[in-house]
């Protein structure tokens, strides 16, 4: 019988960001107290599975999210830059509702092509690097289970790529909440299922934003 391999791709927990900065890849953005609770919950739930390999984005919030699971299973966390947050030229800026930010002529050239997108890393590149990282992890645990901790846009872009859907999308429709788990299941070399769960769903803020 062909073996079953599962790669659980996790979005990190809530980040402490009271000023609403689009933090992207900036250093210093760590999990909030609630985010740490979400990480503990992930450690409890995923810690019951036969996971033998954990990979994380190099950003602090992702490594903090991976830490409780690693402690539960007695595993080291491997850092893979391929699962980092998407590059974004609005990094470090704030865009409040109705504050007129999008009417500034200086940013208009960044908005000309939402299908690429023109303001950041192309979707096709995000999908390619995420899939390459997943392929390496799958090969390392063939017949077993692994975890990758990443960020909302990379996880969602990866999923749409595997599903054969167009990569550009409305961010409001992403199924990738804080501390969620998107599980890729292979039977032998065939991807047979993509499952989605929210182990920390009861901890989610009423209005979770689209931060990464």
TrEMBL record:
GO terms for cellular component: cytoplasm. It comes from the Bacteria. GO terms for molecular function: phosphatase activity. Pfam families: His_Phos_1. CDD domains: HP_PGM_like (cd07067). InterPro entries: His_Pase_superF_clade-1 (IPR013078), His_PPase_superfam (IPR029033), PGM_Phosphatase (IPR050275). Gene3D superfamilies: Phosphoglycerate mutase-like. PANTHER family: BROAD-SPECIFICITY PHOSPHATASE YOR283W-RELATED (PTHR48100), PHOSPHOGLYCERATE MUTASE (PTHR48100:SF51). This is Broad specificity phosphatase PhoE. It comes from Motilibacter peucedani.
């Amino acid at each position: 019988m062909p073996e079953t391999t599962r790669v659980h791709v996790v979005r990190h927990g809530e980040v402490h960001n009271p000023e609403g900065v689009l933090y992207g890849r900036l250093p210093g953005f760590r999990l909030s107290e609630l985010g740490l609770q979400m990480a503990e919950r992930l450690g409890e739930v995923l810690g019951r599975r036969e996971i033998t390999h954990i990979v994380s984005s190099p950003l602090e919030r992702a490594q903090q999210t991976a830490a409780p699971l690693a402690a539960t299973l007695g595993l080291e966390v491997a850092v893979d830059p391929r699962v980092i947050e998407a590059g974004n030229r609005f990094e470090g800026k704030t865009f409040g509702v109705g504050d007129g930010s999008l009417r500034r002529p200086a940013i208009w050239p960044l908005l000309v092509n939402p299908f690429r997108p023109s303001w950041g890393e192309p979707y096709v590149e995000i999908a390619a690097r995420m899939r390459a990282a997943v392929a390496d992890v799958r090969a390392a645990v063939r017949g077993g289970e692994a975890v990758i901790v990443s960020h909302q846009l990379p996880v969602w872009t990866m999923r749409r790529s595997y599903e054969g859907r167009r990569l550009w999308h409305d961010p409001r429709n992403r199924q990738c909440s804080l501390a969620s788990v998107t599980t890729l299941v292979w039977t032998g070399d065939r991807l047979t299922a993509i499952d989605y769960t929210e182990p920390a769903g009861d901890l989610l803020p009423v209005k979770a934003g689209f931060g990464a």
